[in-house]
Amino acid sequence: MIQIYDTDYNEYVDLIGTAHFTKRSLNDAYEAIKSWKPKDVALELDWRRFTQLNTACIHCPREQSCKGICEFIGATQALGNTNANIWLIDMTEKEIRYRMRQRMTPFERSRRHIPLRYFTDENPVQLWEQGFKEQVINNSKRQIETGRKYFPSVWGVLIDERNALMAARLASITSKALDAGKEPNILTFVGAAHVEGIKNLLHHPLQIRDYLRTFNLHYTDPTLIRRVAVKEPTTPG
Question: Which residue in 16, 68, 86, 161 is a FRET match for 77, CA 20 to 30 A apart?
């Protein structure tokens, strides 16, 4: 059973919104890790996506110079040789696809030819790289609202249901740390579209269980990857 207290979990969770595979988000991830030196890092990934991205980077011939690295994998690399917990808090791709298929109405299926993209002449990646994050986020909100108009079930899964599950997992991680007498500080990287919704749920945590019931979400704990520092062998004197 998930343990959720009536407290503002935002005091223990630092959310950083990213634009996936952008150089600026990668730099933001590196800087946040190096500056805060967290012992807990949460990522908007599931085990399968984490493994795919991590494996691709390991075997990439441009590993050290590649500018297209995912900011989530960049964050784990930035941890370096240190003890840390990496938490994978997102819904699996398989469950996302399943829930979208189950939720789509016949009317929505008939409109599948309509693009979900909110049309704008502005390039979101270019704007993000140039530092116009708020503009990109505002455009993204309009895109999401357009998507909700035509495909409410699909966007409900992509945004609302995933937000509820990720917020529940962050609250659970925090609660267990508090129960153990620790002072948690969880540095969390998610797509910018998820930040506002997750923050709101963490601010009103007693609503999280209601959302899980409303969405018929079966709670499972996040995947934990323990990163253990490797001590360099000492040279005999």
Answer: 161
